[in-house]
Design goal:
The chain has helices at about 20-35, 70, 90-100, and strands at about 15, 35-40, 50-55, 60-65, 80-85, 100-110, 115-120, 125-130. The chain is an alpha/beta fold. It has two domains: about 15-65, 2,3-Dihydroxybiphenyl 1,2-Dioxygenase, domain 1 (Roll), CATH 3.10.180.10; about 80-130, 2-Layer Sandwich (Signal recognition particle alu RNA binding heterodimer, srp9/1). InterPro entries: Glyas_Bleomycin-R_OHBP_Dase, Glyas_Fos-R_dOase_dom, VOC_core.
């Protein structure tokens, strides 16, 4: 069995956060999604995050600040939506909005049998939240 530091089973999302806002992103994910930070390693500048490992709803999420001096440019999020499936989509939805997420697609009962909606976080990443239909 993997320990809490080992997210290497299945597929793990790894986000790059622009403009040195990695610490703010960790704070947001803690407030919005109840994330627990398992570990953090800072760059030599003592500010930017080289690696952070979070647990959200039992799954791992890794992130780092962007390092354009090593990559030749800024990584821009595109074409990815991170999904959280939970027993109470409304509770997770309201917490994310209160933390500063914005609505892409309103949370509602969907024809395929889930309560589902999409949000944007303040760092340019797309999230969906889903769960059982609400009566």
């Amino acid at each position: 069995m993997a320990d809490e530091q080992d997210p290497m089973h299945g597929v793990t999302a790894h986000l790059t956060i622009r403009d040195g806002k990695g610490s703010a992103a960790v704070d947001f994910y803690q407030a919005a999604f109840g994330a627990e930070e398992i570990g953090r390693h800072l760059a030599e500048d003592g500010t930017r995050i080289m690696h952070s490992h979070l647990k959200i709803n039992g799954g791992s999420l890794m992130l780092n600040d962007d390092f354009p001096e090593y990559t030749g440019g800024v990584a821009v999020p595109a074409g990815v939506t991170l999904h959280i499936h939970t027993e109470d989509a409304d509770q997770w939805w309201e917490r994310a909005l209160a933390a500063g997420a914005t609505v892409r697609m309103p949370l509602d009962n969907q024809f395929w049998g889930d309560r589902y909606g999409q949000l944007d976080d303040p760092f340019g990443h797309h999230w969906s939240i889903g769960g059982p239909l609400k009566a």
